[in-house]
Amino acid sequence: FLKQATVPTSICAVGRKGRDFLIRHGARVVAEFSLGSRHPTLLDTTPIARTVIEDFTRGICDQVWLIYTEFISTLTQRPVVRPLLPITPGRLQGSVLDRFLVDLPPRAALEYIYEPNPQAILTVVLPRFVELQIYQAVLEAQASEHSARMVAMRNATESAAELVEHLTLQYYRARQEAITREMLDIAGGAEALKG
């Protein structure tokens, strides 16, 4: 994503390993957040959201992209790159609603009356929406990390069990050879004493 960017990019990294990787590869990291706890809460991710919202509203950046690992299943995690800011209306295409709204005719846009006005509502709701999007990305990334760690540990355990089995077999073969050798030495000694 960074290699394909045509404009200068700045990065807010979440986590020490990600930050170290990005700095090592020459990326411009302007902020770094360490969640520290094993179970991050919304309060832990709120400073991240505040930072990116503030930079976006001040005009320091034109776009904010969210890059994280999406947890699909225990064996499958997928990297995701998606725009976070500016917020654009989502498409129904590919969603669950799209499947159920197939036969409905398109309706004209309805005008609703909001109390307070729509601007006041969006001023409160949109930052919360961004906070939740970042929180969800952190949880997905953490679930992906735990899953990858679990699979790695299972593979290591299976490899260790195979190694133990192989070494046990080698031990028994060596022991059997030693016993056979001793028996041959005893038999050879007995034959020598007879002669």
Description:
- This protein is an alpha+beta fold and 195 residues long.
- The protein is built from 4 helices and 4 strands; from the N terminus they run βαβαββαα.
- The protein has a two-stranded parallel sheet. The chain has a two-stranded antiparallel sheet with strand order 3-4.
- α2 (42-58) packs across α4.
- The mean pLDDT is 87.
Uncertain stretches: none
State the helicity in percent bands. Answer: 55-70%
Radius of gyration: 31 Å
The arrangement of helices and strands along the chain is EHEHEEHH
Distance between the termini: 87 Å
Secondary structure tally: strands = 4
Number of helices: 4
Can you give the mean pLDDT? 87
By helix and strand content, what is the structural category? alpha+beta
What is the molecular shape?
Answer: elongated
Beta-strand share of residues: 5-15%
Describe the strand arrangement of the main beta sheet, using strand numbers: 1-2
Main beta-sheet strand count, sense and barrel state: 2 strands, parallel
Keywords summarizing the entry:
alpha+beta, two-stranded antiparallel ribbon, two-stranded parallel sheet, about 55% helix, about 200 residues
